Amino acid sequence: MKHFLTTLLALAILTSCNHPKTDDAAVIKQIYSEALSDTSAYHNLKTLCTDYKGRICGTGKADSAVLWAENLLKSMGLDTVYLQPLMVKKWDRGEQEQGRVISSKAGEHTLAVCALGWAMGTGQEGITAEVVEVTSKEQLTQLGENGIRGKIVFYNQPMDPTHYYTFDSYGETVWQRARGASMAARYGAVAVINRSMSETHDNYPHTGIMHYADTLPKVPAFAVSTLGADSLSLWLKKDPALKLFLRSTSKELAEVPSYNVIGEIRGSEKSDEYIAFGGHIDAWDITQGAHDDGVGVAQTIEVLRIFKKLGIRPKHTLRVVVFMDEEVAQRGGAAYAAWVKDRKEKHLAAIESDRGGFTPYGFSIDASLTQVGRIKNWRPLLEPYGIWWFQKGGSGVDIRDLKPMDIPLLALVSDSQRYFDYQHAASDTWDKVHPREMQLGSAAIAAIVYLIDKYEL
Asked: Which of 415, 311, 404, 402 is nearest to 360 (CA)?
């Protein structure tokens, strides 16, 4: 009998901790109502994008964006606002890049190109060479040195449109940008140019980080717009011997100091236990960085505003982290994880928003099956607002270093259909973000934070 009563008590405690009460629905309704009726976050996004465009780490724009975030958080009357120091890499794009097709059969044409992040430049004179088109890793290997030496490798594997989830398409093709330069240099290429990682057809080249292998020559690397890639492929069919002129003056510089920005609402009962959430403030130098990731910064700062406006006093300390350097070397995420480990901080969860400001539909959860199950119990509260998808999976780049500390990691998941239309391109501007879609994401994060704070994991 005693064992039976103990079991019942344990089940009762488990149920009370994991299943929401009726008053939670009212609070979550308030959270959504506040998010959807206030324009503060959208105004913050516009300011970040227009006043601090091109805020890639190591630049003056990035430094100014850090100060903007710090001042914004201080103006909100939070309990604590501080900067977390780190060192970041620095790279300068230099003069406007040039790309030009030279052919007696196909004519002369200008291409919309940009240097990939951390690519070395061509030098003042530029590079002129014949082009070889490659659409797969296997084809690159088959061509080998005989087909590649002395030429420019044109990577032209498009994103697969048959995938519903566009991040799957991106994952299949991003090797061209990330590793393509060194892969081609192995066979004697003098430069590479890759098709932009985008589902749309326009004239915006998409930049992004690329990585050189230390044991191979470092050749210049460019992106070409999707329309430019299609045209170049057609011109090569007319004239396989056409030449391409490429010029860039980009270069890497010495590392410099930078910061994450942190703001907190102190917990009323367990102030030494944290729920962290954030996005990254850095964005590539050719773009405003609205969907990637100004939205994530605006949404997670908005969580604190909503809690303060509604007078929701959290039991645990709520901490927004505005991360620096997600795009290049993820130094901000590493610095934050080291800080947490050194201070032996307890985190109930860490949440990242870095998948664009489109309509959200759930959370990807990197946690135990038991913890995933607990979060799924909250689905009835969130489903009326379109949040229905809760699946075990990856989280986000800025919080991944927390995983070894067994901290549950969550990522806001939004409709991905248009994300790669804009990622890392000059077209990623604040006006491409719909304020209602963005604020549905803000409310979803605030609601999940409220539930984690109340019921824990």
From this structure: 415
